[in-house]
Structures are given as C-alpha cells and as structure tokens.
Amino acid sequence: EEVTESDDEDNLSSVLHQRAKMPWSACGKYLSAAGILLLPLLLLSQLLKHTVMVAIDYCLALWTEHAISVKIEPETKNCSQCMEFDHSPYSKVFSILCCLGIVLCLVTSIAVEWTGLKVTKKLHSSLLNKIILAPMRFFETTPLGSILNRFSADCNTIDQHIPATLECLSRSTLLCVSALAVISYVTPMFLIALVPLAIMCYFIQKYFRVASRDLQQLDDSTQLPLLSHFSETVEGLTTIRAFRYEAKFRQKLLEYTDSNNIASLFLTAANRWLEEYIGACVVLIAAVTSITSCLYNKITSGLVGLGLTYALMVSNYLNWMVRNLADMEIQLGAVKRINGLLKTEAENYEGLL
C-alpha cells in the first residue's frame, strides 16, 4: 500500500509539473506555419506601434510641462508682460504621431488576421492530406467524432481565437514592458526594485496560469449542465406541470446556478487578486521613487505625472498579460491535437501505373 501511495504521489506531481509547463512545441508549430515573412512583420509592427504610443504620451507630458512653466514663470518674477506660449510645434508633432499610430494599428491588425488565415489554411490542408492518405486501421481505432472535432472545433479555434489572443497577448506584454521602461526612465531608482519584482511576478504567474486554466474549465463545465437543464425544462414544461414537479425542477435549476456562480466568483476573485496585488507593489515603488526624485529637483512634474500614470496602468497590463497567456495555453491545445494527427503514417500503397 505504501508503494502504491508513493507511485500515486509521483504521478500526481508529474501531472502538475506538466500542467505548469507551456506547450512550446505547439507554439513553435503555429509560428513556423506562419512563415518567414509574416512573423517579422507582425513583431515589427507591434514594436513600432507601441513605440509611437509611448512617444505620444511623452510629447503630451513635455507639451503640458512647457505650457505650465511659461504661464507660471512671469507670475513668480512679477513681470508685467506675459509671454504667449506657441502651441503649433507641439500640435504638429502630436498630429503626425497620432496619424502614424493609426496607420501602424491598421498594419498590425492586418498582419494578425493574415497570420491566422495562413496558419489555418496550412494546417487544414496538411491535416486533410494526412487523413485522406491514412491507413484503414487509423479509422478503425480513432472515433469519427474525434476526427470531426479536429476539422471543426480545433480549426475554428486556430482560425478565430488564437489570432485575437495572440494580438492581445503581444499588446499587453509590450504595454507592460513600455510602462516599466517609462517608469525606469523617469526614476532610475525603480530599476533597483525591478529585479525582485520581476522574480515575484514570474513565480506568481507560473502558479496562476494553472489555477486560472482550471477555474476557467470549471466555469465551462458548470455552465453546460445549467444550460442543458434550462432547455430541458422549457421543452418539457407541459409534462412538468402535469406531474406537478415545478418545485423539484426549480430547486435543481437553483443548484446548477449556484455551482456556476461559485466557479465564476472564484475566477473573478483570482483575476482581481492578481491585478491588485502586483499593481499595488508597482504603484507604491514608483510613487515613492518619483516623489523623492521630484523633491530633490531631479525631474520635472510632467515626467512625474507620466511615470505615475504608467504605474497605475501596469496592474491592468500585467493582469491581461497573464490571463491572455493562460488563454493562449488552452487554445494551443488545438494545435497540439492537430499536430498529433499530422504524425499519422500514410498508407503503404503502390497503385498500378
């Protein structure tokens, strides 16, 4: 019995270890199917877009700082003649950056959709060729529903869900990196606290991804009985009233609703915990370092406001980054299942010429 219990513990630990690992093979398969040209275009457009977004915020910070300084300086010196601030150079730069950002957003969206379309077409055609040339023993041992799910549900996930999740993941990741870069530029002392903060975020997201994926699956599994029971109740309403089973079906519906609400509550609480815990640490460190630097006249108030604005948004960016990473991990299972069928050996058949 002791040997059996130890074997079960080893199997459980190995399963938990596998669940905590990212399916890099499926990710590499998806990116390799995208091609050599689309992947650099996607990365370059994302980098340029977020660089322009940071430049827009920096331009606004300088614009506001210079405009306020021009108005305050004559009042402090008791000057009779007030200088008028020229807004035209800043407005021109701001307009050019906004137009460039709109163009880059359009290019990024087209690159993401184009990548998803190309990957879907390539994997679908490869899977179709493998299934057509598969031996008869494959169809005898593989359920037909499993094959249909590869062509329907998994291809739909690769076609519609993975490109959107990939775009959201890259956007939230680059927004988080750019926010941390702006805070580090405004207050270099923030870099001292960035290393332990990054280590803490790594271990938190490692365990959060497993919990978030399980909670999402629990939410889905508790929602299906609720919908099935509701549809069955509506269809058999006449029979239920004839046998006077209204209270029984109402109680069953409330039980399914409570189960689904509990799963949704745990999932929402986990997401909010991730956002508030990490975000509070980042905001506290950024606020202390920014205010300390401002008091010693090392940086201007405009840059302090820019750094604090990005610090307040880091929590949201980190939350979406980890949630999108968990969603991507679930959706890459479709690529992994299709890749498993692509390893099917073709029928060894030599036809007559």
Automatic annotation (TrEMBL):
GO CC entries: membrane
InterPro entries associated with the record: ABC1_TM_dom, ABC1_TM_sf, ABC_transporter_C-like
KW ATP-binding (keyword) present: yes
Alphabetically ordered keywords of this record: ATP-binding, Membrane, Nucleotide-binding, Transmembrane, Transmembrane helix, Transport
TM region positions: 30-48, 93-112, 179-205, 277-296, 303-322
PROSITE patterns: ABC_TM1F (PS50929)
Pfam families: ABC_membrane
SUPFAM superfamilies per the UniProt record, alphabetical: ABC transporter transmembrane region
Sections of the chain in a coiled coil: none
Residue ranges of domain ABC transmembrane type-1 in the record: 41-329
Molecular function via GO: ABC-type transporter activity; ATP binding
Keyword Iron: no
Leader peptide range in chain numbering: none
Annotated protein name in UniProt: ABCC8 protein
Gene this chain is encoded by: Abcc8_1
